Amino acid sequence: MGMRQKDVDKILEIGVLLSSERDLNRLLEKILSSVMELTRCDAGTLYLLDGDSLRFKIMRNDTLGKYEGGDGRDPNLPPVPLDREHVCSLALLENRTIVVDDVKNCREYDFSGHLKYDDKIGYHTRSILVVPMRNREGEKIGVLQMINAMDGQGNICPFPEDTVLLVESVASQAAITIQNVRYIRAIKGLFQSFVRVMSSAVDERTPYNGNHTRHMAACGEKFIDYLNENARSRGEKEPFSKDHREELLMSIWFHDIGKLVTPLEVMNKESRLLPPQRREFLHRMETIRLLAKVEHVQGNLTAEEYDKVTGQTREAEAFVEAVDKEDGYVTDEMMAQLKDLRDRTYTGEDGKTCPWLSREEYDMLSIRRGNLSPEERGIMEEHVVITDKLLSQIQFSPELSHVREWAAAHHEALNGMGYPKGKKGTEIPMEVRIITILDIFDALVAADRPYKKGKSVEEALGILMDGAEKGRLDKELTQLFADSRCWKK
After folding, report:
1. pLDDT tens digits along 91-144
2. 49 φ/ψ sector (left φ>0, alpha ψ -120 to 50, else beta)
3. Quick check: 129 and 149 in contact, CB under 8 A?
4. Cβ-based neighbour number of residue 464 at 10 Å
5. What's the Cα-to-Cα distance from 427 to each of 117, 400, 477, rounded to whole Å?
6. Which of 41, 307, 396, 418 could form a disulfide with 146 if both were Cys (CB 3.0 to 4.6 A apart)?
């Protein structure tokens, strides 16, 4: 019997339904429910091939009120070996549909195990339809098994021939769709692995940034979940769908990708002076002491004058070291001492007058807060521009279309004092505001930064709250972040 127009329409409708689904669990649910609706059957099972066995994925029995597998957890049943002793395996191995009108009177296949299971659960299996699922290339995908077709009066009957043709058509579509979803998952998994590798490459460039992005991503996941839960508790719509959540997390993983090209001498800078500058200054102090010693030996300096020079250079070394490693603020008193040191001179071996502190050293030590000069800070800030440039070369899917924008804007501030574009207020999306909070918090509590000691959680939260009060950070999100305690392991 050929397919009727309404049957064709139904298959097309199912095809559209299946092709629009990208979540494998929901897809399998739709496949089974669609086939059960087509066949008007009482029970059904969907198996997927896993190595050399068929694994139960979705089971439904309307009479028993039983449904398993829809939540993504496989039914708690052992897999079926891929052999010819089991009718579902046989159908897949021989790539043919198996129709049985009455299992008790069937001589072609052994249903003894099936009937024993029926006795155990109090069910009566009569008619069975088993349809293999293979893709266009003939690769084995899985099996659809329908049990107990129903007639118009709700009585168990054999599966009609035209119904079998419909299920075979749907099974073919289903196999292709399942394969496509698997391909998409594999590609997505590959891309996510690439993202993590690239992010790890940034962190591994320096021992002082090794866990930053991983900490942010872990904290971000918990914060997103907290925001969803908080919305649910108030009867509001969750702000983050699965795709939205994934998009924000990928933005977090990518946010520092521009640091791949940031010079290590800037990223790894431990104090105000660069190592060569520090060595040059210490060498100069040693030179001054040696020259004074020569002058003393030659009788040009008294012992007291020599001791004074030695004491002054030692004091200068201690002072410079203190200012160099100061992780707070360089005070006006320190600045006055630096100027005095800069203006102090000695006579070199060539007779030239030389400063105790070079202009470059003075400029670095005069950095009021932090350890980067304006030029070095500009280099560091350039990483967000490089992030935007690198991400512009990736063809993101529509579900990830905001990753580039969000990742490259995480140093913007609501008051317009951020960088690189000085965005402010509503120009900064909620997702960017979240990344900014996560970034600042982890930077504050990090114990592996070269230029400062890690702050306590409460100190860090205080700084975040202060930033929110001053209009730099989102006040509501900052408070929610503090309430979430999402940094806890």
Report:
1. 999 999 999 999 988 888 888 878 888 888 889 999 999 999 998 888 999 999
2. beta
3. yes
4. 22
5. 63, 19, 16
6. 41
Give the position of tokens 């590798």: 197
Consecutive 10-residue averages of pLDDT for the chain (489 residues) = 58 69 80 88 94 93 89 85 91 94 89 83 92 90 94 92 87 87 84 84 72 92 97 95 95 93 86 92 96 94 95 97 88 95 93 95 93 91 94 92 97 96 96 98 80 84 96 97 93
Per the listing, tokens 């200012």 go with 323
Q: Is the bond preceding 420 in cis, omega lying within 30 degrees of 0?
A: yes
Give residues with Cβ within 8 angstroms of 119, minimum separation 6: none
Q: Which two tokens stand for residue 225?
A: 């979940």
Distance CA 489, CA 487 (A): 6
Structure tokens belonging to residue 384: 């967000």
Q: Record the tokens describing residue 74, joined without a space.
A: 């496989």
DSSP 472: S
Nearest-5° Cα angle at 95, 72 to 136 = 75
* Euclidean distance between CA atoms 135 and 171, whole angstroms: 9
What is the rounded CA–CA span in Å between residue 489 and residue 480? Answer: 18
How many other CB atoms are found less than 10 A from the CB of residue 307? 13
On whether the CB atoms of residues 317 and 273 are closer than 8 A, the answer is no
Q: Are 117 and 109 in contact (CB under 8 A)?
A: no
Length of the chain: 489
**Phi then psi dihedrals of residue 48, to 5 deg:** -120, 140
**Tokens 């049957």 correspond to what residue?**
7
SS3 129: strand
Both structure tokens of 385 = 């521009």
> Which contiguous run of DSSP H or E holds residue 161?
helix 161-204
For residue 345, the surrounding DSSP H or E stretch is: strand 345-347
Distance CA 141, CA 173 (A): 12
Distances (CA, A) of 368 to 23, 211, 334, 445: 54, 28, 10, 22
Cα–Cα distances (Å) from 330 to 168, 316, 327, 334, 380, in that order, read 78, 16, 9, 6, 21
